[in-house]
Structures are given as structure tokens and as C-alpha cells.
Amino acid sequence: ERKAGQRSTREWQALDAAHHFHPFSDAAALNAQGSRVITHADGVYLWDSDGNKIFDAMSGLWCVNIGYGREELAEAAYRQMRELPFYNTFFKTTHPPVVELSALLAEIAPDGFNHVFYTNSGSEGNDTVIRMVRHYWASLGQPQKKTIISRVNGYHGSTIGGASLGGMTYMHEQGDLPIPGIAHIEQPYWYANGGDLTPEEYGLKAARELEKKILELGVENVAAFIGEPVQGAGGIIIPPTTYWPEIQRICDQYGILLIADEVICGFGRTGHWFGSQYYGIRPHLMTIAKGLSSGYQPIGGVLVHDTVAKVIAESGDFNHGFTYSGHPVACAVAAENLRILKNERIIDKMREDVMPYAHQLWHNAFDDHPLVDDVRTLGFFFAVTLVEDKARRQRFANGGELALRCRDICFQNNLVMRATGDSMISAPPLTMSRAEAREFVGLAKKCLDQLA
Ligand code: PLP
Question: Which PANTHER family does the annotation name (predicted)?
């Protein structure tokens, strides 16, 4: 219901169209249609300005891991704003929230990750990674060791550095990217690229693309490999089991740094604190953001393994940082978020209970569905690929358009899912209950049925 002093939906839309440039949007098309105005949220639900209740099966943008409406986080922000709303940590100062959060992260992170560098976002985290690995090798007397190898359809952010690391050609096309010193290899997407190989054979083949690229570029020029444990924005691409162990072997053998972009996978998405733990890999750097604060405040960073931290620490000034690196309010909120995740055992409970239940629901709904194949679940990731002919693994020529139509059908039915290429993907809050899982999968199935 409209509260006193609020604008009507049409008024919001008109002002929005007149003055607000939306990210990743076709402004003309969007403004002709009018944006949906989201006004409040609780648990796994959003409400729009017309009073519709919407199931948010994307956790915002893969970030609201603890769900909406946690008062403790609002209170942490309020307390910190009154106590110390801002101070920096550039010039020989620190403050309690940044210290508390750093100590908490060191406790949660895998062994050897005792330092964190803060940013405001995942993109800035990956820009930090580029500067840090190049500074690391330069400090060790190898300044030419600069190239970072990344993957097709990887998503590492939208800054010039992040978008260059990323493998999204539609982003490279705007702005003359990638910057020099970034190379891309194939993504480990068996369903699309595996041909006649088994997933396990293909996982090894895809990983060995890294080895080939290192040899082609010369190991003396290669600084690092970066990858998301599970590619998120690229379409929830779950690599075959053989992939990450082989990547680890190659990084070890050639002595290059391994960077895990944990911006989506971190803080519980895979059923573990970090995706690296799920896959048993040992990165040197981990980019974090999103679930770090469950999206309640913009904050990101880089978790730095002792081996790298030591070299950076002994190399004089690291000439990098942001005004809001380690922002006190963002740190206070992130620390409260981590305490809730930890004290309420949200990740363990999800892994032990709702996760296997929801996986079963997803497979029951879609394994035999005529329009989809490659039905994928891992942690609280859920995806399907739209296909024309399952038996022949043949995808639609216009699969991307179909998926966008499917996404719109979902939205009309008050369900937020995303379309990536010809995949329909979802990542609900980790607090989703069994009843909510039934509602989510039921809605998703209803929408896919409408596409038929
Ligand atoms: N890395 C990954 C894996 C992401 O999914 C994203 C955002 O979706 C980013 C980096 C960029 O984070 P941000 O949008 O906070 O800059």
C-alpha cells in the first residue's frame, strides 16, 4: 500500500527513466518499458511498489547469503556510524572494526591466509590482484613475469582490469579490452565443449590448456592463473572433478600463483566457507566481496596467503588503496554478517539439510523436462541449459533469446532467476527453508513449462 509521502510506481519509473543510467542495460528499451521498483525485502522475498511479493532466487546479485531483513546488521551499521563513521588506514592509523573483521577472516579462511587487503567491490579486488601479483614478482626480481591467464566467460568485474581478466567478449568489445598482459583459455564447460570425451577426460583436457598457454607465453613471463571455482555469471559452469586438481598440479609445477576469485563462491555458496575448500585447491590469493557482507554494505577485498604477504611486506610501500578501503561501517556490518553465518551454523545447516533436499527437487523437476538438459546443482547453485534435442545434445540456435524470454516469464510470475547464454540460473539465499525450496522449484518449473 502506498504510504504518505511516497511516490506512485509511475512517478518512480518516470524519474528513474529521466535521470538514472542503469548498469548492464539497454537504456532506451528499459525506459520505454519502465523499471520494476523494488521497495523492501525480508528473508528470500522482495516486494515491489505495487505490493507484489517476489521470490529472489538470485540473492540480489549472488550476494544476500544470509537473506534480507537481519536487524543485527542494521544495528551494527547504526552503532558504527555514530561511533566513527569514517576514518582511513593509509597513514599509520587503524580502527576497531577493520581489525575485528581482519581477525575474523583469518580465523574463517583456510590455513595460511592471515592478511586481507580491503576494497569496495569484487572488481576492485581483482584490480588489486593484478597490481599485487605484478608487484610480488617484481619484488622477487622478475618484473617481466606479468601475464595473468584467465578463462573464456569468466567474470571478474567491470573495471578495466576486472573486465580484462574476465572473458566476456561483449564487455571487451566496448572500450578496447583486454589490457596487455592478460591471456584467456577455454572454460571447463563439458556440455558445450566436451564432444565425445567423458567429463573426466575433458576436465583434464581443459586444464591442460593452461599448461599449453604457459609454454606458449614462456613461464618466465607468466605471473598467475585466475579462476572462479564455479563460474557464476558465465552460466554456473561446474567443472568436471578432474579439472581443479590438474590446474593445481600445473600451477605447482610451473611455480605460478593461483588466484581463486571467490566473489560468488565465498561465504557459503558451495556449502563450504570457500569454493577452494570444496575443490581442495590451495590458492595464493582469494578475491572476496558479495557474501562478505551479504550485500548489506559494499565491501570486498583480497585474502593474501602468508607466502605472498611476506614478500609484499618486505618490499616497501605497496602503492595502492582506495579512500574507502576498510571502511568502518562496511567492516562492522561484514563482521556481524560473518558472526551470524558462523554462530547460527548457516552454511553447515544448509549443506546438511536443505541443500540435498533442494538438489533432489531440482532434478525431479527438470531431469525429464523436454526443454532442458545439463541439469546442474552444487551448493546453492541451480542451473539448466535450454536444449532443442536432448538425445543429440543439440542446443537452440536462438537459445539466448529463449532464455531471456524465460527470465521475463519468471519475473512476471514473481520469481527472480537469471538468463546467461542459453542457461537459466539461480542462487538463492543460504537461509532458504525446505518449504521455500519447494516454492522456488515449483515456480521455476511452472515458468519453464510456460516457455514450451
Ligand atoms: N568476480 C566475480 C566472480 C563476480 O561474480 C563479480 C560480480 O558479479 C565480480 C568479481 C565483480 O564484483 P563487483 O560487481 O562487486 O565489482
Answer: AMINOTRANSFERASE (PTHR43094), AMINOTRANSFERASE CLASS-III (PTHR43094:SF1)
> Which ligand 1 atom sits nearest the alpha carbon of residue 300?
15
* Whether the predicted model's global pTM rises above the 0.90 cut: yes
pLDDT at 3: 57
Task: State whether the Cα torsion 55-60-63-68 is positive or negative.
Answer: negative
- 3-state helix vs strand vs coil in the chain, percent to 5: 45, 20, 40
ipTM score of the complex?
Answer: 0.99
Which domains are seen in the chain, by residue range?
9-69+345-451 (3.90.1150.10), 72-343 (3.40.640.10)
The DSSP secondary-structure symbol of 220 reads G
pLDDT category at 5 given cuts 50, 70, 90 is low
Inter-axis angle of helices 434-451 and 355-366, nearest 10: 20
Residue 40: CB atoms within 10 A of its CB come to 11
Do the beta carbons of residue 185 and residue 210 sit within 8 Å?
yes
For ligand 1, atom 13: residue with the closest CA: 122
